[in-house]
Amino acid sequence: MSYSATVFRVMIATPSDVQEEREIVREIIHEWNATHSNTARLVLLPVGSDTHAVPVMGDRPQEILNEQILRDCDLLVAVFWRRIGTDTGRAPSGTVEEVREHLEAGKPAMLYFSNALVAPSSVDQTQYLALLEFKEQCKTEGLIEEYDSLDEFRQRFSRQLQSIVQDELQPAIPNAELLEEQLAIRTGLSEDAQTLLL
């Protein structure tokens, strides 16, 4: 049966080395929707540059992504491991630029950093040092989450997604009962009286 719901877009922002985490974020969002969307009257739509970008010329690539995808998002989930990403000219990486722009717009962002072990020979030291610097900066600007395994990430993100929905997104949804009550009141009023209520 169909139902009305408010759709919130969730930006999944990651460098290229955390593809498994990116998929876990999508899975958890879909699980949340299957369990809660009908009763909460809220749907989370996972979006990202890998699924929603359209090829266009005429600006910096990251600015195009920001315009096409990021600016309409309500929540951002960023995940990092060994890499910070590719410099955009305005930020150390596209993911960092997305985080900064999202926060500057006053929207919530959830940042996760993996502590999973890695072979030292597979690490680009320049990338890793830039990531550590960004991570330390983030620690002074809010709360971040660290995890040691994919299972731990899955558990933490699932629990924390529910919290952020309750604390940040649900309060933004107009109260359906109040709207129905206001509509019922307006129905009995003249056109002039209804105009005054607007």
UniProtKB/TrEMBL annotation:
Name by which UniProt lists this protein: DUF4062 domain-containing protein
Organism per entry: marine sediment metagenome
Lineage: unclassified sequences, metagenomes, ecological metagenomes
